[in-house]
Write a structure and sequence with these properties.
Helices cover 22% and strands 40% of the residues. By secondary structure, the chain is α+β, with helices and mostly antiparallel strands. The protein folds into two domains: 31 residues; 93 residues, Sandwich (Immunoglobulin-like). The strands form two sheets. A four-stranded antiparallel β-sheet has the order 1-7-4-5, with no helix packed on it. A three-stranded antiparallel β-sheet has the order 2-3-6, with no helix packed on it. Strand 4 and strand 5 form a beta hairpin.
Length: 129
Amino acid sequence: MNTHTYYLRAAIAFIVILITGITGCKKAADDEVWVETRDVVIQPYKSDPIDGKQYLDVIYENVGHDTYRKIKYQLIRRTGTHIDTTERIILPETVFAPKDKHLVPRHIGQSVVTFDEVKAGKVWAILDK
């Protein structure tokens, strides 16, 4: 077998594997449909001062009857007259079952609070089937 045939076969095999991987990933992503919900309550707030510094704490609670794998919400912060809205995702350690209530853990190096007020807007979730 000459060198050109070897490289051609290797390139075709690579392309087949790449297409198969992309199609497999796409099918998994298609199963994840974000659905707006009122069954998950998000409560962001300023923490009690720790060494004179306050941090953002977020409690999330499942008040419905469904179980969820992922939660996405709008975090609305007001500083003076400026309002900033961002989307955040919560990945529960286990399936988020009805009546569960958790505090989002703080990550190392989380910055201190610089806003005056905070609240949650819309909430979306991915159901656990």
